[in-house]
Amino acid sequence: MSNITEEYVEEYIRELLPEDKGLLKEIQHYAIENHIPIVHKEVAALLKVITKTSRSKKILEVGTAIGYSTILLCQAAGEDCHVTTIERDSERVEKARNNIKKADFTNNIQVIQGDAQEVLNFLDSKYDLIFLDGAKGHYKEMLNNCIDSLKVGGILVSDNILFKGMVANDDLVIRRKRTIVNRMRDYLHYICNHPQLDTTIIPIGDGVAISYRRLEE
């Protein structure tokens, strides 16, 4: 239970959505067994819809983990797409690269090992879609680089922005998580009022923010 919506609603939605097949199902099971966080089922479905409807071909992901959402994004984007994804954990990078090879997406996906805040400084491409799923306490610090890398008309998807409901309700806040909660509240206020972004917040998974990049007024 994520504390984002009623448990019965969450369960109903997840039962409705089709199960993963093939490699994605294999990766999902591995993630569960090894306590590796991947996107929630309903967020995965949202990412696929956003990628397809926006016709995104050039995608940036911050936070690869073992490549589940990376492969999902690549599948949704279709032929001639390119996904750049950043992950600092060396073991996860190795596992992600192996999964990407199994998916036969080696030519479509580039995995960059390193700290996202540092890597973002050196990217010189413009992306149709950016999926921000890295260190929750550093979203705001990464935002300006993400906006610079996002084309006008592009979409920024920020995951886990309600952080088990703690961002929305002080009664749920765990003391040791207070700093992350405060930073995420600051991030949400910032993107909801940013002159270059139109943003909405969707209470599914662990909370998702979707931002559309427009020209500054």
From TrEMBL:
<keyword id="KW-0479">Metal-binding</keyword>
<dbReference type="GO" id="GO:0016300">
    <property type="term" value="F:tRNA (uridine) methyltransferase activity"/>
</dbReference>
<keyword id="KW-0949">S-adenosyl-L-methionine</keyword>
<feature type="binding site">
    <location>
        <position position="39"/>
    </location>
    <ligand>
        <name>S-adenosyl-L-methionine</name>
    </ligand>
</feature>
<feature type="binding site">
    <location>
        <position position="133"/>
    </location>
    <ligand>
        <name>S-adenosyl-L-methionine</name>
    </ligand>
</feature>
<dbReference type="GO" id="GO:0008171">
    <property type="term" value="F:O-methyltransferase activity"/>
</dbReference>
<dbReference type="Pfam" id="PF01596">
    <property type="entry name" value="Methyltransf_3"/>
</dbReference>
<keyword id="KW-0489">Methyltransferase</keyword>
<dbReference type="GO" id="GO:0008757">
    <property type="term" value="F:S-adenosylmethionine-dependent methyltransferase activity"/>
</dbReference>
<keyword id="KW-0808">Transferase</keyword>
<feature type="binding site">
    <location>
        <position position="159"/>
    </location>
    <ligand>
        <name>Mg(2+)</name>
    </ligand>
</feature>
<dbReference type="InterPro" id="IPR043675">
    <property type="entry name" value="TrmR_methyltr"/>
</dbReference>
<dbReference type="GO" id="GO:0000287">
    <property type="term" value="F:magnesium ion binding"/>
</dbReference>
<comment type="similarity">
    <text>Belongs to the class I-like SAM-binding methyltransferase superfamily. Cation-dependent O-methyltransferase family.</text>
</comment>
<feature type="binding site">
    <location>
        <position position="87"/>
    </location>
    <ligand>
        <name>S-adenosyl-L-methionine</name>
    </ligand>
</feature>
<feature type="binding site">
    <location>
        <position position="133"/>
    </location>
    <ligand>
        <name>Mg(2+)</name>
    </ligand>
</feature>
<feature type="binding site">
    <location>
        <position position="69"/>
    </location>
    <ligand>
        <name>S-adenosyl-L-methionine</name>
    </ligand>
</feature>
<comment type="function">
    <text>Catalyzes the methylation of 5-hydroxyuridine (ho5U) to form 5-methoxyuridine (mo5U) at position 34 in tRNAs.</text>
</comment>
<comment type="subunit">
    <text>Homodimer.</text>
</comment>
<protein>
    <recommendedName>
        <fullName>tRNA 5-hydroxyuridine methyltransferase</fullName>
        <ecNumber>2.1.1.-</ecNumber>
    </recommendedName>
</protein>
<dbReference type="InterPro" id="IPR050362">
    <property type="entry name" value="Cation-dep_OMT"/>
</dbReference>
<keyword id="KW-0819">tRNA processing</keyword>
<dbReference type="InterPro" id="IPR029063">
    <property type="entry name" value="SAM-dependent_MTases_sf"/>
</dbReference>
<feature type="binding site">
    <location>
        <position position="160"/>
    </location>
    <ligand>
        <name>Mg(2+)</name>
    </ligand>
</feature>
<keyword id="KW-0460">Magnesium</keyword>
<feature type="binding site">
    <location>
        <begin position="115"/>
        <end position="116"/>
    </location>
    <ligand>
        <name>S-adenosyl-L-methionine</name>
    </ligand>
</feature>
<dbReference type="InterPro" id="IPR002935">
    <property type="entry name" value="SAM_O-MeTrfase"/>
</dbReference>
<dbReference type="GO" id="GO:0030488">
    <property type="term" value="P:tRNA methylation"/>
</dbReference>
